Each structure stands twice: as structure tokens, then as C-alpha cells.
């Protein structure tokens, strides 16, 4: 899998994470390729198990947010008949990685088993859990439609930074301080907040060849913590990369 922008072509394993706050921005070492908000596209690839055989041609500075999740992107990949392959990452041994308030627990298994737990003080969110067994069916039914969310103050910061320029407010969950979804966005579905955090985790893992074979439980995950945790887990030997077939 690679990104193509103009004359620049960069394979997934050569991508550099340039930003991991309020979305993920990736690029090349030389800087000629620089693409923002790739997390849902990567999640669609990871959720469908598309490890190779696809080139993403990008026009513009960021991937459109579309439906606020990964459903439209995943449906497009399914329509293309993108090939499915085994994960290129696996949990090699049990252990934990702590990144600030985020905790990541790893346990070897022969199948994909991802779960997240989140906790927010806002009563409209509270504590939620979501899990995924690696199947395309559950990914499409439960995770791909889960919309991105953020508080109104964060949305303003994104706009001030020139990011998320193509966001339809009806496709996201802009939250009031109590966790309620501001109009014109629709109210949150059952555990949609946790499911979107799990969707984001799948996209972050995809940069390393995941989602991995094995059990990974993430408590209070976030893009920056996810990337740091995976890099540390590889360094500590908890995760190992598998050769491409």
C-alpha cells in the first residue's frame, strides 16, 4: 500500500507521522508528500484487511471527512475489490505499555481481538467500551459508521489551524460541555464514542502493519498515545512485524 501525490510515491512503512493531535497527518521524509486527516482512510484499510495491492492517489492537503467515520471509504474499497491479506503485525508476548493516562495491554492470540475503554466527565459520554474481533462484517456494521467527535472549543482550534477545512457539521459530533451533540449533528448512537476511538486505533495500528494478530486492550486511547505505545511495544518485543507474503 502506498500514497501517491504528484511525482512522489511513498510506501506505508516509509510514512512519517507529522501530527497526531485532533487527527493524523503523515508525509515523506523529504516533505514533498504531506497529507492530513488520514486516520479514517487508514482505518478503512485496516478494518477490511487490505495490506497490499492499493495505491492511494491524493489531491489536495487532506483526506475529506465525508461521513465522519470510515463507512464511505470502506464501501469504496469494497467496490474496488481491494485484496484482503493477513495482518503484518502480531502480539509476540504479554505485557503492558503506559503512555500518560493511557494503558495498552497485549496478550498473544491467534486471532484479532481489539477493545477500548474510555472515560469522560461529561455525562453525555461517561464510561464506554467497544470491541472488535477482526471481521469485516462487524467492522462495517459497528465501527465504520461511528462518527468523529470533539468539543466545540476543539473544533474552533482546528479551524484556526486551517485543518478540517472540508467538514460537514452534519457528519460529525460537535459536543457541548455536557457531551450532548450540537445541531445539526444527530445524537450519538449506542457507544458511538467508544466505537470511534476503536476505529481510530485501527487506523493508527495500520501504519505499523496492523491491526495485529493477538489481544490488545486500550484504556483511554488517543492518536498520539496509540503511536507511542505501538512504537514502544515493538521496541520491547511485545509486538513484532511479520514479513509480507
Describe this structure in words.
The chain has 245 residues and is α+β, with helices and mostly antiparallel strands. The protein has a single domain, classed as 2-Layer Sandwich (lpxc deacetylase, domain 1), CATH 3.30.1700.10. The protein is built from six helices and 15 strands. The strands form five sheets. The chain has a five-stranded mixed beta sheet, covered by helices on one side. It has a three-stranded mixed beta sheet with strand order 2-1-6, with no helix packed on it. Strands 3-4-5 form a three-stranded antiparallel beta sheet, with no helix packed on it. Helix 1 crosses helix 2, helix 1 packs across helix 5 and helix 5 crosses helix 6. The model has no long low-confidence stretch (mean pLDDT 92).
Task: State the helicity in percent bands.
Answer: 25-40%
- Supply Rg: 17 Å
Sum up the overall morphology in one term: globular
Helix and strand pattern:
EEEEEHEHEEEEEHEHEHEHE
Quick check: average pLDDT? 92
User: What is the H level of CATH, i.e. the homologous superfamily?
Assistant: lpxc deacetylase, domain 2
Briefly note the structural class of the backbone. Answer: alpha+beta
User: What is the terminal separation in angstroms?
Assistant: 13 Å
- Given the structure, what is the number of helices? 6
Top-tier CATH class:
Alpha Beta
Would you spell out the secondary-structure blueprint of this structure?
Elements: E1 2-5, E2 8-11, E3 16-19, E4 25-27, E5 34-35, H1 39-48, E6 55-57, H2 71-80, E7 89-91, E8 95-99, E9 102-107, E10 112-119, E11 127-132, H3 136-143, E12 149-151, H4 152-160, E13 173-175, H5 192-206, E14 214-219, H6 223-236, E15 239-241
Helix pairs in contact: 1-2, 1-5, 5-6
